[in-house]
Q: What sequence folds into this?
């Protein structure tokens, strides 16, 4: 059913916000603003706090501003949403700009999360936007056409729209000429959308549709939070606790305060902020501050200790059961062969290239916050709480960020809360809290560390008769507002996703979870649970294939009889990689398949071994993401995911030494460099299904594909990551 | 008072002589195209050209650039810069874009010296420039495309 379409006026009145209004010309300097009413089921969504919220604003100057419900951290969602809008609107591509929308969950609520909270994550951006942004574009076009029909006094049906111009026979008019008239029209209640066969942008590649921000990003003109300039803007660097959970007892900033450019040194909830007129002076002054910490509640264990405890727990029965099909116990008892394996996964930092930052200013009872607002409603409320104002007094500036990978989807506001607290402590002056790389890397919010213990039984014919997996590690969502929805029967879905439900037909299957607690803060990290579950599942499956004497692709295809989409993806990857073709001497292949966030990806890695490490030459990636809205961006995300995931499994880990994070920069925490990047061929399965996300699902298969190739080369199974840790050599 | 030239313009900055060039460019002159990523010569985000040589501006103190010619991404110009930036845009190299000022300057410097770089040449010249979005395959492709345009 098509929801009612309404252009959206100032949403100050909660009743008005529920019904939606046409935006008056005055409110947006003579433009047309298109939103549409939230569906009645979402009426409990908080009233809009941003009177200028909408999906599209068309100005009298012909600019088309699209307000994205999702933040762009490099995954390309602004481009995707612009594509969806313009498929229906038919503006000239050069007219379009995209900004981050905020402050109206009725408009921007994430459909994949239930629609009442705006947020970016879980590869939901495209699926959540697919219908509503096309509909918004179509409604806008319809209104423009009607206005033009009135202006020219001709039937609307005779008016065509192309490249931002309205045309009737030989007469042309730009959008800007009729927006005032269009804004006064009733909003169409139903708008027909184009048929897929008529699409000219969706599913099409460059050069038809180039990313509108690529040139800005190639010429240094793209501004990030670190680049924002404001009159009187100060810089704060933080002194965070040396161990998670430590608190400031007292500090001495006498020397620092006397240094050039230092404005103040203030205590905020998580530590001490050194505020100066520029970054370098703040950094130098930070060295002159001494802090005494209360470490009574701090985490003081080393990761070696934490992991040893996990290994012990993994051999015990799990505390919660995520999956229980048939009876694995009797399956193992009757199996011809039983295999076991224990895997260890380290903590991982996101290490986005722009270190975490945010800017806050409090002036005349109003708060402004610049940052990577991945959960805007939440941050608006947090900023309001700290500043002591109501949320409607908080304005957000949604910045593009230099990467993210999950790090900015912080439920407690994190650096944003810090910036508001610092601004408040210095009388509301504008201040950018800028973490250094070391601050960023040592601030926690890691991909949790896990141990997995797997066991499987094969019958005499090499069929899997039982499969058991016990996962031990921290919960990402416990203690957060997400807990209610994401922890079921003691199982945090983010701990077991990619393990608890598999496309493979196992007659007996049991997945258990033991959730641990440590003082180390954890968070979602690109592809979340599947970053570890897929590695354990897909390498163990490879072991079973070898034990059964079967080809790894054929072995999987046998198990995928009930999942034709998965089978098709795997077949496509195998065909494109030349799985059946012999390899040159010294080259080896491995395969892995993983579904995450409803997108199915298979990757085949071709490697050689240098020293004792894999050198990955080529990765063939096949995927099914439903309709690929921007195929080239899908490819870009797969390439990027391969590189991101590969760096992590080969080299990255965060360790603690008596509670202190050891790695602080890219020397200790190594990530992939260009000379380690394989060629990546991406093959998108043609589909007419609704689109699913692509920002994350390329990550999970790369680790196990490389590990399986490494086994083919060396007969060694790498079960503790990363590859380059000393015990693997 | 330190004097040096940035993108062809003389600068006289009354800043501490031990201030890294990176922060002088960003906070002193307001040229924010040069990015901070690590502060330790480990990522390449802060790459600028000092007398034409790619240099990590986070590791160069103001004292050491007295009298030198600095080119930042904002001042990248000439035939090589043009074809490199066009190739970058044409292939949609950037994802988040944060590393790309450094990548582009490193590529300009490579192509200025080597008009027909191989993949191995590119990897060697750019291995100090991290891209967390792993746009590496497109960086290679764009350097080759720029090389073709220069041929
Ligand atoms: S900031 Fe200079 S190399 Fe990273
Ligand atoms: S494009 Fe994001 S770090 Fe390179």
A:
């Amino acid at each position: 059913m098509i929801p009612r379409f309404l252009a959206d006026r100032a949403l100050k009145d909660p009743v008005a916000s529920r019904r939606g209004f046409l935006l008056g010309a005055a409110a947006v300097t003579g433009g047309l603003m298109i939103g549409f009413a939230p569906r009645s089921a979402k009426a409990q969504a908080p009233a809009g706090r941003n009177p200028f919220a909408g999906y599209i604003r068309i100005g009298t100057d012909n600019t088309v501003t699209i307000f994205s419900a999702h933040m762009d951290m490099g995954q390309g969602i602004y481009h995707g949403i612009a594509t969806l809008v313009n498929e229906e609107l038919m503006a000239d591509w050069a007219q379009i700009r995209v900004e981050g929308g905020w402050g109206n969950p009725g408009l921007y609520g994430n459909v994949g999360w239930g629609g009442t909270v705006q947020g970016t994550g879980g590869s939901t951006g495209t699926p959540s936007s697919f219908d509503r942004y096309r509909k918004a574009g179509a409604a806008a076009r319809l209104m423009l056409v009607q206005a033009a029909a009135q202006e020219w006094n001709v039937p609307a049906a005779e008016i065509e729209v192309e490249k931002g111009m309205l045309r009737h026979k030989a007469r042309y008019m730009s959008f800007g000429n009729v927006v005032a008239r269009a804004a006064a029209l009733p909003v169409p209640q139903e708008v027909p959308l184009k048929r897929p066969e008529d699409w000219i942008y969706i599913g099409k590649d460059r050069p038809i549709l180039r990313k509108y921000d690529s040139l800005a990003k190639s010429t240094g003109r793209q501004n990030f939070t670190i680049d924002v300039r404001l009159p009187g803007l100060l810089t704060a660097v933080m002194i965070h606790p040396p161990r998670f959970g430590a608190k400031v007892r007292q500090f001495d900033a006498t020397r620092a305060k006397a240094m050039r450019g230092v404005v103040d040194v203030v205590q905020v909830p998580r530590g001490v902020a050194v505020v100066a007129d520029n970054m370098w002076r703040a950094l130098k002054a930070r060295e002159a501050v001494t802090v005494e910490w209360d470490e009574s509640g701090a985490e003081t264990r080393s990761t070696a200790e934490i992991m040893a405890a996990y290994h012990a727990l993994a051999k015990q029965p799990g505390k919660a059961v995520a999956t229980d099909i048939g009876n694995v116990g009797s399956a193992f008892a009757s199996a011809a062969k039983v295999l076991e394996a224990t895997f260890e996964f380290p903590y991982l930092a996101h290490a986005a290239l722009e270190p975490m930052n945010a800017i806050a200013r409090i002036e005349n009872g109003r708060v402004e916050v610049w940052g990577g607002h991945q959960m805007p409603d939440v941050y608006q409320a947090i900023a309001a709480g700290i500043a002591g104002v109501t949320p409607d007094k908080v304005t957000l500036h949604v910045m593009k960020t230099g990467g993210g990978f999950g790090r900015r989807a912080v439920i407690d506001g994190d650096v944003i809360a810090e910036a508001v607290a610092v601004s408040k402590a210095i009388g509301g002056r504008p201040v950018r809290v800028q973490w250094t790389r070391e601050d960023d890397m040592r601030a926690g919010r890691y991909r949790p560390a896990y141990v997995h213990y797997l066991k499987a039984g094969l019958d005499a014919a090499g069929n899997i008769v039982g499969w058991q997996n016990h996962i031990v590690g921290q919960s990402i969502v416990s203690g957060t507002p997400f807990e209610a929805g994401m922890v079921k029967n003691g199982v945090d879905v983010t701990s077991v996703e990619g393990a608890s439900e598999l496309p493979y037909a196992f007659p007996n299957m049991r997945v258990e979870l033991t959730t641990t607690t440590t003082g180390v803060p954890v968070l979602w990290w690109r592809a979340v649970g599947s970053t570890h579950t897929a590695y354990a599942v897909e390498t163990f499956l490879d072991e079973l294939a070898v034990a059964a004497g079967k080809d790894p692709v054929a072995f999987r295809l046998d198990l995928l009889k009930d999942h034709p989409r998965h089978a098709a993806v795997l077949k496509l990857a195998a065909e494109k990689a030349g799985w059946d073709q012999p390899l040159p001497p010294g080259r080896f292949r491995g395969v892995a398949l993983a579904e995450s966030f409803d997108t199915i990806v298979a990757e085949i890695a071709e490697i050689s071994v240098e020293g004792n490490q894999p050198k990955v030459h080529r990765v063939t990636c096949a995927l099914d993401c439903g309709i690929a809205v921007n195929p080239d961006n899908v490819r870009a995300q797969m390439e990027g995911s391969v590189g991101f995931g590969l760096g992590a499994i080969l080299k990255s880990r965060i360790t603690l030494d008596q509670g202190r994070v050891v790695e602080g920069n890219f020397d200790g925490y190594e990530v992939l460099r260009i000379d380690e990047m394989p060629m990546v061929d991406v093959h998108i399965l043609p589909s007419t299904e609704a689109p699913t996300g692509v920002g994350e699902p390329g990550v999970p298969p790369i680790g196990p594909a490389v590990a399986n190739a490494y086994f083919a080369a060396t007969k060694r199974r790498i079960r503790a990551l990363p590859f380059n840790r000393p015990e693997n050599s | 008072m330190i004097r040096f030239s940035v993108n062809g313009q003389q600068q006289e900055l009354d800043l501490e002589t031990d201030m890294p060039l990176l922060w002088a460019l960003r906070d002193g002159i307001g040229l924010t195209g040069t990015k901070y990523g690590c502060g330790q010569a480990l990522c390449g985000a802060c790459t600028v050209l000092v007398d034409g040589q790619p240099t990590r501006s986070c590791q160069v103190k103001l004292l050491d650039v007295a009298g030198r010619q600095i080119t930042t991404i904002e001042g990248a110009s000439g035939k090589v810069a043009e074809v490199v930036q066009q190739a970058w845009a044409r292939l949609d190299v950037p994802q988040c874009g944060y590393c790309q000022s450094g990548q582009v300057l490193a590529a300009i410097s490579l192509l200025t010296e080597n008009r027909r770089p191989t993949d191995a040449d590119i990897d060697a010249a750019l291995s100090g420039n991290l891209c967390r979005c792993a746009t590496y395959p497109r960086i290679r492709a764009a350097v080759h495309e720029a090389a073709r345009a220069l041929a």
Observations:
- Chain A touches chain B through 64 residues (CB under 8 Å).
